[in-house]
From TrEMBL, chain A:
This is Metal ABC transporter permease. It comes from Actinomycetospora straminea. Belongs to the ABC-3 integral membrane protein family. The keyword Metal-binding does not apply. It is found in: Cell membrane; Membrane.
UniProtKB/TrEMBL annotation, chain B:
Signal peptide: none annotated. This is Metal ABC transporter ATP-binding protein. It comes from Actinomycetospora straminea. It comes from the Bacteria. Pfam families: ABC_tran. PANTHER family: METAL TRANSPORT SYSTEM ATP-BINDING PROTEIN TM_0124-RELATED (PTHR42734). Keywords: ATP-binding, Nucleotide-binding, Transport. InterPro entries: AAA+_ATPase, ABC_transporter-like_ATP-bd, ABC_transporter-like_CS, Metal_Ion_Import_ABC, P-loop_NTPase.
Amino acid sequence: MTYSLLDLLALDFVRNALVAGVVLAVLAGLLGPLVVGRGMAFSVHGTAELAFAGGAGALLVFGTEAIGWGALVGAVLVALLFGALGRAQRERDSVIGVLLSFGLGLGVLFQALYTGRSANKFGLLVGQIVGVDVGDVLTLTVVGVVVLGVLAVVRRPLLFASLDPDMAAARGVPVRALSIVFAVLLGVTVALGVQIVGALLVLCLLITPPAAAAQVTASPTLASVLAVVFAEVAVIGGIVASLDAGLPISPFVASIAFAIYLVCRALGALRTRRRVAVTTA
Amino acid sequence: MTPSIRLSGAEVRRGGRTLWTGLDLDVAPGEFVTVLGPNGSGKTTLLTVLLGLLPLAAGTCEVAGRAPRRGSADVGYVPQQTSMDALTPLRGRDLVGLGLDGHCFGLPFRGRAERARKVREALLQVDALDLADAPVGALSGGEQQRLRIAQALVGDPGLLLADEPLHSLDLARQRAVVDLLERRRRDRGTAIVFVTHELNPVLPVTDRVLYLVDGQFRIGTPDEVMTSETLSELYRTDVDVVRVRDRIVVVGAEDRLVHTGGGPR
């Protein structure tokens, strides 16, 4: 290794990558528990594939500048559709599966037709965080602040509607309107995530951290805080490790997130056993 | 005194079908009204109206002297028992707290101490202080149902609506829930509208019965409504009502409706 970590951090593109990763992890960590609570893990995967298709289509037709917009349009449209599907799990799963595979097929077609740099192609699937420039970081931060602002306003009723939908509806929470708002927030976050960690690994930021947090706490606030922390550790650790090893970022993000999940599962199992021991004593 | 509920000439339609019409009902504070009837007779729909989620097709409805509003603090609601996912990120205190301000937008900065006190008091009323920090998904059906009642009571409502709250609970748990409701209405004068398929668990505490069948209804004390003549009229077939010790058994009612269904004539 020829560079120390400090040398790497002094590089502009590394700092851009880190800022982008930090913002993305905050969004993913805050939305994640709601995604898990609403049983929408598979929707996130589907949304990511459609963001990939949108990004690839935009790349083919308009060039690299348009990738972000293409991903955003693809993700938000399909997230709205998934949000409108209602709560019948089986029907929802099959519709998502149908659209997901179609989106993936379209994306692959767009990429096959694209004749430019191959790095542009693979970035959308496996992530290209070192390609993030100052403009991207600015856009990401602005979008991040907007998403946080909306979330600050709707979080309580959204949590209610996500975890306890029947009761929330009875208490007058606009459950349907909130599911549309949530779909837009999710679509935006997924579209950003696709450009940084790639479509294949958005799940590991949006699902794995909250799933790990849910193993060790039942407090909704602590679960969100932990999900953000876990997502940050995975992203920042993944960026640093990938730079160090000269490999793509996604395997590192995925491995760190998975390791956190395994540790939390073990802790959760211990906690449950202790509770059972207390109640039967 | 302002009645907790005042319905006059109330009519409800759903999907082009009139569920019931001409319903006049005043419920006094502290009164326990049990709503009976077969599936699809509009029992739950009555609660939906009182929650302010469905407007009447005709007639008027007042809850605590005002038109029903969504998310009103005057009304508490206990839903039918549903099991929560094991990993739901909510503790007992969180579930109860959602009943207080879960419908409010914005950040919960103000009144945190007051909120914690109210949640604690609601948990105390249902003897569930020990469930405050337990993950709701890990609790038994009876424990979850006690939390549901605390969730409904935390806003200190003058009216409590309960939709089959005893469903899938064993007899001991059913009695515990009924005792809780009975204590609440005695101590605080909370009116209770209790939708159920099973009258017997609430028979000792029921003041009046509202019996809905296929667009028709009868209102009165259990002794007035739960007779062979009245129910035979309602169901338009021979129904036998038999009293066995302190229980009432209805023979020949529900099974017929399941087969014929249909709208009112």
